[in-house]
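In the design runs reported in the main text, the only information available to the sequence generator was the tokenized backbone. The following block is the verbatim input for one such run; it is reproduced so that readers can re-run the procedure and compare outputs position by position.
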């Protein structure tokens, strides 16, 4: 009797963990899709494109500040075609920093995007961890004029859950 009860409890615990993992994976996937959707919408905004084309940090930062109010992101970055930061919301001193070493930025500058990945990219910035989506910024649908990176901060609880399944998201 006690062996049967122990086996049933163990099965129930395993099922509960499996369900929690599935729920967490779905939640992270939805956050990622939201980031991609927001990035695509912002990247199609004609005022945004015009400001990025100016290759002016001040103009780009101004439009980034304005558009950041339309979405709830914790990271909002725009690069020029060479992968150098034009605007990093909340940190204007990062102008000129090269982000081509980030796989998602490099892919976006080549005309691809995170849709080519099976999972989002994680960025460690300062003391924070972010789930990011990077997309190309197109001029006329033909020329890539930069990359747009949007990110959502990963909470301590989410980070602990990610540690339980390191294959889920590839950090960089």
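Verbatim output:
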């Amino acid at each position: 009797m006690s062996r049967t009860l122990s086996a049933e409890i163990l099965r129930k615990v395993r099922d509960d963990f499996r369900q929690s993992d599935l729920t967490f994976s779905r939640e992270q996937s939805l956050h990622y899709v939201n980031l991609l959707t927001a990035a695509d919408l912002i990247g199609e905004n004609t005022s945004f494109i015009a400001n990025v084309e100016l290759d002016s940090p001040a103009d780009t930062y101004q439009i980034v500040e304005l558009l950041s109010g339309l979405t709830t992101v914790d990271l909002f970055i725009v690069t020029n075609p060479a992968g150098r930061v034009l605007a990093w919301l909340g940190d204007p001193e990062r102008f000129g920093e090269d982000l081509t070493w980030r796989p998602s930025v490099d892919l976006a500058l080549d005309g691809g995007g995170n849709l080519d990945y099976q999972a989002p990219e994680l960025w460690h910035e300062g003391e924070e961890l972010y789930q990011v989506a990077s997309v190309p910024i197109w001029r006329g649908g033909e020329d890539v004029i930069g990359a747009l990176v949007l990110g959502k901060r990963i909470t301590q609880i989410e980070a602990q859950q990610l540690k339980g399944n390191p294959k889920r998201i590839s950090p960089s």
